[in-house]
């Protein structure tokens, strides 16, 4: 590893200040080298640019870009850490409100804090983005970035750094050098060689299979037509309708939607080939929709909304259509987003998610470390119990 005096970690206060080709070469090396889709579309320069330049993730909304760039003294890039200076804990999906409340009641200042990850996006992906030709191991680059970010925090009186929805390998590697490890779970669908949706249905226990078929029939019983759109097939009328759906859901779940209308326009302009939009129509009018992003090996479900309620339409548009599309695209995994135990009965099984935490104050760090040890045990037990409750025939998921 280069000695500390030969390495610089600097900060960019907007993604636009970082060369897009450099960013994507670190974040999406396979797509950059071989073409095709990125592993994780949310890590692309164009996605983060849309969030920032649309006014969605900006200081005024509590998300001040603070991206870390590690370089040699000659200016050769070593790696990147996407991060934001936060004045609250909204839009993260790894909840630390209790930590903030306890610290502030004790006289501390929890905010601002550093959040390393993708705003508003509870999707697993790499966070310590090593340059593939830097000559260092990914772990070494991650440690350099951590040292730079923690020094930045300490000199500015920032309470903490939170690396959310990182990969398991990052979680293990950075936990080994002292970052606090947190674990949670989501519900993901994984293709076990089903071939098509009928093959998936055959893997379910008989009662669950009958229920699923019933739900799919009920969803369109009122004359609902469902279409899947991607690329140039997505038109302004679809975004106009989806914006209405998104506003309704955002107002009910978060108080106000996270994304602005210009963000969707930028996503269309620069990422429509990476988008799958499931739209539902009745009597010639769009009534509901679900927005997904397509990765190289994962279909990511993001937003759903509607202006009419129909039994099971949510399940059809968000979960069954996603499975069908993943099988058609040859994408072996569907991440259904945060929370939602109702996904279990629809074939989405519990899968662990990971986050890492650096906390400056020794007392708060000790208290959080104790809490996280207990929480990890509870999460492991919950995953085990939920797995036993899954809808599959015995042995179906292991190919027996």
Topology:
Blueprint: E1 7-12, H1 20-27, H2 29-34, H3 45-53, E2 63-65, E3 67-72, E4 77-81, E5 83-86, H4 97-105, E6 113-116, E7 129-130, H5 138-155, E8 160-166, H6 168-175, E9 180-190, H7 197-202, H8 206-219, E10 225-230, H9 236-254, H10 261-271, E11 275-282, E12 285-294, E13 299-306, H11 313-329, E14 333-335, E15 349-359, H12 362-388
Parallel strand pairs: 6-8, 13-14
Antiparallel strand pairs: 1-3, 2-5, 3-4, 4-7, 5-6, 8-15, 9-14, 9-15, 10-11, 11-12, 12-13
Helix pairs in contact: 3-10, 8-11
Descriptive overview:
It is a single chain. This protein has 12 helices and 15 strands. The protein is an alpha+beta fold and 400 residues long. It folds into 2 domains: 4-185 and 352-388, Gcn5-related N-acetyltransferase (GNAT) (Aminopeptidase, 3-Layer(aba) Sandwich); 188-350, Gcn5-related N-acetyltransferase (GNAT) (Aminopeptidase, 3-Layer(aba) Sandwich). A hairpin with a 4-residue loop joins strand 12 (285-294) and strand 13.
CATH top level of the largest domain?
Alpha Beta
Strand order of the largest sheet: 2-5-6-8-15-9-14-13-12-11-10
Principal-axes shape call: globular
Number of domain units: 2
Query: How large is the radius of gyration?
Result: 22 Å
Number of strands: 15
Structural class determined from secondary elements: alpha+beta
Proportion of residues in β-strands: 15-25%
Mean pLDDT: 95
Stretches with pLDDT under 50, minimum 5 residues? none
The CATH architecture of the largest domain can be named as 3-Layer(aba) Sandwich
Please give the count of helices: 12
Distance between the termini: 46 Å
Order of helices and strands: EHHHEEEEHEEHEHEHHEHHEEEHEEH
Approximate helicity band:
25-40%
The main sheet comes to: 11 strands, mixed
